């Protein structure tokens, strides 16, 4: 059974809880797909690779996705999505992301998220095992360059505590709808 490209994109964006913006001022902004908390010790490889200082025990991750940066070809069991991650600690580090989604029978199977700076990958990667019937958020892990695995703490959608760790200037440039 073939599924249209648009249905595949809609499925992936819904898995990351991305709300499609209406034709308002939010339409040109990258939508926030996930905000999470992680032990800073888990991502020191990212900070060190970007020459960024950090001192707080926990860091906050704010993922966005770019619907215009989505690439899917009918018959391919892969989908790629461009985006960004903002990592808040002593300051905010912005990196590009590439999400590679594998599909099985037209449904999400799993996702790998790579971080990059200056067209080079940095740090480890994020992995999301997306079982059917579950939005998969609680399954996201960070796998460091040494192979250590760390689970993310994902606050509920109503919990603004995660977003409060990012400057208003950054949040104003993103879509929260």
Plain-language structure description:
Residues 1-22 form the signal peptide. 12% of the residues lie in helices and 45% in strands. Strands 8-7-6-5-4-3-2-1-9 form a 9-stranded mixed beta sheet. It is mainly beta and 177 residues long. The termini are far apart. The protein has one domain (5-175).
Low-confidence stretches: 1-24
The portion of residues forming beta strands comes to: 35-45%
Query: Could you state the order of secondary-structure elements as H and E?
Result: HEHEEEEEEEHE
Query: N-to-C terminal Cα separation, in Å?
Result: 33 Å
Helix content: 10-25%
- Residue-averaged pLDDT: 80
Per the principal axes of the C-alpha atoms, what is the gross shape? Answer: globular
Count of DSSP H/I helices = 3
The strand line-up of the biggest sheet is: 8-7-6-5-4-3-2-1-9
Largest sheet: 9 strands, mixed
Alpha-beta content class:
mainly beta
Count up the domains: 1
Over the alpha carbons, how many angstroms does the gyration radius reach?
16 Å
Number of strands: 9
